[in-house]
Sequence to fold (112 residues):
Amino acid sequence: MAPFTEKVIEIIRQIPAGKVMTYGQIAALAGSPRAARQVVRILHSMSRKHRLPWHRVVNAKGEIAIQDDESFHEQLLALEAEGVHVGLHTRIDLDKFQWHGEEFGEGEHGGI
DNA sequence: TGGATGACCTTAA
DNA sequence: ATTAAGGCCATCC
Fold:
């Protein structure tokens, strides 16, 4: 398994409930800022076997990037169940729900 | 214009 | 048949 893939999986696993991350951010933390697609690929394929909280991963706009209506709704419900306020436009407040990682520090400004 | 972003498609073991 | 790895390019702001 590629170290990049492992890192991506680790990062995704470290995402706390009620928080979301973006593909580009995960890719950047994994070491490749331009490998957002890889993150997509990993989420799509490995999340199932690795039991990853794929529903906590959204695009840079804070929207659910899934195209499958079923999976889309699944993620929608999962996010709302965790406390993530998903608007009718599936727009998530990244400023409030985006997770910056543990290693980033402890800048908690109320939320979870 | 330009730079970032992306839930894919293909190949190999 | 399944699981994993890699990248270019259209699209949006």
Observations:
- Residues 22-24, 27, 33-34, 36-37, 39-41, 43-45, 47, 54, 57, 59-61, 64-68, 71-72, 75 of chain A lie near DNA strand B (CB under 10 Å from a C1').
- The mean pLDDT of chain A is 88.
- Residues 36-50 of chain A form the longest helix (15 residues).
- The longest strand of chain A covers residues 21-22.
